[in-house]
Specification:
Aminopeptidase; 10 helices; alpha+beta
C-alpha cells in the first residue's frame, strides 16, 4: 500500500485533513468506548490544539489518497525527573491492521525522539481490541502495571452511606475544613497544594514500571490546568485544609469534558500519609459526589481509573459502587530494544 507518514502540527492542519483525522479517531473510540457518542469537530480540534506548555508533543499520520489509515502520538515531559520516558500511542484503523502500518509509524517515532534523551517508552492498551497488545508483545514490551477503568452509576449510589462518611469524616477531622476550587489554584494555596500533590504522586503504586521519584512544580500544575481549560473542560478540586496552619491534608478532583453530557470523570484523590486512616478520603469523595449531583443533576455516570495494586482507593471506590468497565495495561520497553526490533 503506497501511503505516506507525515509529522503534523494540528495548529496548521487544514479542515479537510482534520475531519479525516476525526473520522479515524471516532472509529477507534467506538471500538473501546462503545457507549460514548462520537467527538464533534470543534471538540476534537480544541483537544488537539491545546496541550500543556510543560509537554513536548509529536504527531504522525499515515495517509493514502487523502484518507488517514493510522496515527502515532508521543508525549515527553519538558521538566521533572522522568524526562527520559516517552509516552507513545499508536493506532491503526481496523481495516488496515496487520499490514505493517503500526511498525512504520513506530519507526518514525523512534527516529524523531532518539536525540531527546529518551531511554524508555511507555505504551497503553485496553482489553478491547487486542491488536495493540499483540503488537507490543511481538516487539518485546512488558506489562508494568494493570489498571481498571471503573464506572459508578449514580442511580446505584448509596446516599445513606455517603452521609455516614461525611459525618464520620467531620468528627474525626475537626481541625480541618473542606474548600472547593473550580478551574483555579488560589494564589495563597498553591504552594501547599504543590507539596501535597508531590507527596500523593510519589506514593502512587507504580508496580513494575521504571519510574523515578518526581518533583512536580507549580509551573507543571498550572500548565496542565491551562490546557484543561483551553480544551473547554471544567476542573473541580476539593481540598481538606487545616484551620490553624492552612496545611493541606487531602484532595479529590473531577474533570468534566462535556464530550458525553451525562458523564463526569473522577481524576486523582490523595491523602498525605500522616493523615491517612482518619476517613479523609471518604469524606472528600462523599462531599464531592453530593456536590456533583446537586450542581449537575443530569450526570448519570462517573468514570475513574485505578491501579489494581492500589488497594485503599479500590476499596473506597468499590464501597461507593464503582464497577469495572475496562481493563488497561501500561507497557514499557527500553528505546534501544525497539531500535534493535526495527532493524
Amino acid at each position: 500500500m503506497n501511503y505516506t507518514i507525515d509529522l503534523v502540527d494540528p495548529d496548521f492542519m487544514d479542515e479537510q485533513l482534520l475531519k479525516k483525522y476525526l473520522d479515524l479517531f471516532n472509529e477507534l473510540q467506538s471500538e473501546t468506548y462503545s457507549d460514548d457518542p462520537p467527538r464533534t469537530y470543534e471538540q476534537f480540534v480544541r483537544y488537539l490544539r491545546n496541550v500543556s506548555d510543560s509537554e513536548k508533543v509529536y504527531r504522525w499520520l499515515a495517509v493514502v489518497k487523502g484518507n488517514i489509515l493510522g496515527d502515532a502520538c508521543c508525549f515527553i515531559n519538558k521538566e521533572g525527573e522522568n524526562r527520559h520516558i516517552a509516552y507513545v500511542n499508536i493506532q491503526v484503523g481496523k481495516n488496515y491492521r496487520q499490514k505493517g502500518i503500526g511498525k512504520a509509524l513506530l519507526q518514525h517515532v523512534v527516529e524523531k525522539i532518539q536525540n531527546d534523551g529518551i531511554e524508555i517508552i511507555d505504551f497503553m492498551t485496553v482489553n478491547k481490541p487486542k491488536a495493540g497488545s499483540i503488537f507490543l508483545h511481538r516487539m518485546g514490551a512488558q506489562i508494568g502495571q494493570t489498571n481498571h477503568i471503573n464506572q459508578l452509576e449514580i442511580a446505584d449510589l448509596d446516599y445513606t452511606l455517603m452521609d455516614n462518611w461525611i459525618t464520620r469524616g467531620r468528627q474525626a477531622n475537626r481541625d480541618f475544613q473542606l474548600e472547593f476550587w473550580k478551574n483555579e489554584y488560589p494564589e495563597d494555596r498553591i504552594a501547599a497544594y504543590v507539596k501535597l500533590y508531590n507527596e500523593f504522586w510519589n506514593s502512587v503504586p507504580m508496580d513494575e514500571l521504571e519510574y523515578r521519584w518526581e518533583n512536580i512544580s507549580e509551573k507543571w500544575l498550572r500548565d496542565s490546568l491551562r490546557a484543561i481549560l483551553a480544551k473547554g473542560w471544567e476542573y473541580w478540586l476539593l481540598v481538606a485544609r487545616n484551620k490553624v496552619n492552612s496545611e493541606l491534608a487531602g484532595f479529590t478532583t473531577l474533570i468534566y469534558t462535556g464530550y458525553r453530557r451525562d458523564l463526569m470523570n473522577q481524576d486523582d484523590t490523595g491523602v498525605a500519609e500522616r493523615y491517612r486512616n482518619r476517613g479523609l478520603g471518604r469524606w472528600l469523595k462523599a462531599v464531592m459526589i453530593k456536590k456533583l449531583i446537586l450542581e449537575k443533576p443530569y450526570i448519570r455516570i462517573v468514570r475513574t481509573e485505578n491501579a489494581l495494586s492500589n488497594g485503599p482507593m479500590l476499596r473506597i471506590n468499590q464501597e461507593m459502587g464503582f464497577r469495572n468497565y475496562l481493563t488497561e495495561e501500561i507497557w514499557q520497553i527500553r528505546l534501544q530494544a525497539i531500535v534493535d526490533y526495527l532493524k
